[in-house]
What we know:
The structure holds two protein chains of two kinds. Chain A is about 30% helix and about 20% strand. Chain A contains eleven helices and nine strands. In chain A, helix 3 (about 100-110) crosses helix 4 (about 115-125), helix 3 packs parallel to helix 5 and helix 4 crosses helix 5 (about 140-155). By secondary structure, chain B is an all-alpha fold. Chain B has a domain at about 95-300: Orthogonal Bundle (MetI-like fold), CATH 1.10.3720.10. Classes of the chains: A alpha/beta, B mainly alpha. Chains A and B meet through strand 5 and helix 3 of A and helix 10 and helix 11 of B.
Amino acid sequence: MPLLKLERVSRDFDVSPPWLNRVLDHEPRRILRAVDQVSLDIDKGETVGLVGESGCGKSTVARLIVGLYAPTEGRIEYRGRRLQMIFQDPYASLNPRWRVHDIVAEPIRFLGTPQKVEELLRQVGLSPDDGEKYPHEFSGGQRQRISIARALAGEPDFLVCDEPTSALDVSVQAQILNLMSDLQRRLGLTYLFISHNLAVVSQVADRVGVMYLGRIVELAPAAQLFSRPRHPYTRMLLDAVPDLGMSGRPRTPVRGEVPNPLAPPSGCTFHPRCPHANERCRREVPAFIDGVACHAVLEGRI
Amino acid sequence: MILLRRIWDHDLAWSFRRSPVTVVAAALTVICVGAALLAPWASPQDPFDMAALNLSDAFTPPAWEDKGMASYPLGTDNQGRDILSTIMHGARISLGVGIAAVLFALVLGVSLGLLSGYLGGRVDAVIMRIADVQLSFPAILIALLIDGFARVALPGDRHDELAIPVLVLAIGFAGWVQYARTVRGSTMVEKEKEYVQAARVIGRRPLAIMLSHVLPNVTGPVLVIGTIHIATAIITEATLSFLGVGVPATRPSLGTLIRIGNEFLYSGEWWITVFPGLALVVLVLSVNLLGDWLRDALNPKLR
């Protein structure tokens, strides 16, 4: 029984211009489908990574899971105790007018958990005296530690991490990642780890999902995904990663751009950028079978 | 001592010290407010005590004029009331009405702006359309309307004692739109920030988030508008009183005094209307200058 189960979850956003402009300009409503039929199971104690380009719906999935958005279609089932979230921007995720102590204490007070602020600050590597300060007195990495302390204050068993390191210096990223895996081991946490940084995801995730234009196109154990990618989009992403090992592998830049999500391409939404696309790909949406959604893979063409 | 030191070293205190105009304006404001607050004890005469008035002293010119008397430094009006004392008492009423009206407008405007910006959708559309409609009328007209309506609705004998609360409501209601619009704009920015989402993930209710998270982050501009609005509210009150629909003549504000004196301006008794007018100008100007300074001092781009 998975801890979290997403069943064909979709989320639409109404991005129409205001009513009056719409009527005057004879424009129709414009609906943006940010997440399209996403199914995902996450088991207790594992870390699932979610990667994809900007605007592919990763963050929307995160917000759907913690309940900030309601799904337009589909079901989200959560069997755990409580979900908390760590946000991307450490400068916007802490209320600048609140002292750190009050920020970390808010979940404790409101949810009635028996946590202690001093203990939580110590757990994330800060001093208990830091509680008296305001967020602007801390660096990005320290703020992210405060964010983690706040999330832990709610005693979650599941943490949704929306690009928790992408706003940080590389040296600080490693510290935060170490802290997170440390906490996972000690508290038995489950993570959904969202990132556009493949190197980071390969380091922390047990399984990785690749998203493209609101759909999950490939889902596989991390080792397998990085050594034997199947979906052409995953291959394209991996080929674009700078090769620090100097193995002599030729590096191919990512081709094309993400299409306008307001008017997604027909069939497989990746077909305009895909080197293997044929007539069927343009016509038919590929089903997600056996960890991948691609006609070419399922037909054995690649 | 440490506290004083910290206030002295604060950014605001620093920019205050660097602006001589602001220091003068602050000094004048303190004098005006002080004189107004201390009027019942510091004024030479109690202008509302009929027994203390001497009708034979009516129309005494200021002390430095030929027929002036030292006991009436700025002269007397048609009923023998000392002008200096009436100004002090009048400023008390003007300031009181002005500040109370601003507080009322501020609370109303900030609440509606928060609701409008945070909830969005229909609530926002309704509140903002009301604001748009109200903005198409001059504030003084709205105040006149409310005041006139209250005059008809209230029984005649209660009108005089309720005149001041009605005036506060009328002026306050005419001024809430500015606060609502400013707060709505800032709220729409703040509510998209992740700290608000973090509070929602914890499960806090919208009202709690608005009050404890968003409100502290949108109050900066409100403070500036409020200070400048005090000056505007005092002017509005003076205008209404000058037109004769404001405070009753038995408890005159600066505007009432100017109106009373206006009748004698052309017969040579200029001091009855000029001194209250001067007092009004000094009061409004210094509050305005303070507001301007506060606006610049709180604007990080002008630092």
